[in-house]
Amino acid sequence: MTKTDQSSPLFAEPVERLPAVAYVLTFCIAVIGSNSLVLGPIAPEVARTFGSSVALVMSASAAFGLGTAASALLMARHVDRFGARRMLLWALLGLALALALSALSPVVPALVGAQLVAGIASGIALPAIYASAAAVAPPGRESRTIGLVLTGWTLSMVAGVSLSAVVADYVHWRAVYAVVAMLALVASLTLKVSRYATCLRPVPYLSRWLRCASPVSSRCSSPARRS
Hints:
Helix content: over 70%
Oligomer: single chain
């Protein structure tokens, strides 16, 4: 009679659940993604309010993208220096302020400037969110945790765009930015009172990876190739 080495599922190691902070980080991504997409559906109404063209109004979206790209490129390398948690909290507060200014903008240039500030805050927040997702993940479940956080972009595309059109139709386009500003503030306060700091753990090569996300420098070369 042949003996088989089969592991019983009764003795399988329990899979560690993802921390609740990961879902908060997903919400942060959804808030940032929502702001990047809400202007499209409400642009005609914004243009009517300002007596301007849709093309000029959409320059605010371009300003947001420019601010996000520039700040992410320049600030990613400083996540470890200042701490992902601190940078994320301040970035979310800055985003909430910029969105409130967007809601109160009296002219198109003011909206463009507010969205530029929102982009800068988002570009600081995104590297901090990705760094935090890896740091709070249980050992061996980094990919699953980061995958969960990235679903925030899907949530923003599905819910953010449709809800912005509804809010603009039934209330006003300014209410759209006011709602997203409140969501950014809620995300910041939730992270502030959560067990975010206690979930953090060191992640090998994380700071190196974040530095290499910025313009390529000699510090990104492989250690094996150094003499």
